[in-house]
Amino acid sequence: MSTWSYKAAPELSDEQYARWQSLLEERTGICFMQHKSILQKGLRQRMSEVGAEDYEQYFQQVSAIPDGVVEWAQLVDKISVKETSFFRDNYACDVVRDFLLERVADNAESDTYPLDIWSVGCSTGEEAYSLAMLASEVIDYLAVKSFLGVMATDISQTALTLARRGIYSGRKIESLPLAIKNKYFTKNNQGDFEITPALRQRIYFVQGNMLEIEQAPKLAMDVIYCQNVLVYFRRERQWQVLNALTEHLKPGGMLMIGPGEVVGWQHSQMQRSGDEQVQAYVKRGLTN
Asked: Domain check: are 256 and 172 in the same one?
């Protein structure tokens, strides 16, 4: 019989919730004002793991600089939403595919056109690998030489570790077309499915905080895919992030966000693209 026991933390009071929410938003931009249960569940899980029973004591622990940095990262891993799937928004993926077909075809005369894509908030990797598959299919269809690079960022180190492994259950890929499964996955001895090395080497996973995009190196992207991330941000934060992402697009590049995820955003360099089923923007200017 265990010689110790853990007493579950009580419900967050309104004052405690406001304090934790303020710290979370200040450091990550994430706002759970309408999703208190997500924050409380993550706090309880992590406090249980480290044996903390008091919200105040744990707050002091994670907010301390630099001593609390590691524990803060562990807490963010618990709180961050990791729900994702391959080709989660099929219609948006079709729009990106058609965009890439036109963009690569327009640059077919180039010896090796560099095709650069950014998956923002990539979670456990399904989105990033989906984008890499889309682009690879376009390159193969057009029979052109093109260097493909996909940058995938997320705030959660745990999610990134899983993404880098590139191993998924049969359930995760059951809805994919057979041709895609056969081309981009191999079944391992445990019965799971691994992303092929050829596709995996086209993607680099990097930890990134959405609030620090303005300080990120000015890499020029053909497509920036940022879906189901900004929904947890306040409107002013959303606009700030989108303005920063715009600076990372090549002229003629596409920014894809979740339909209805951001309201009222406008930018002098961006024009709306596609129909009402997607929220896509293309950067004004030359396409090369």
From this structure: yes
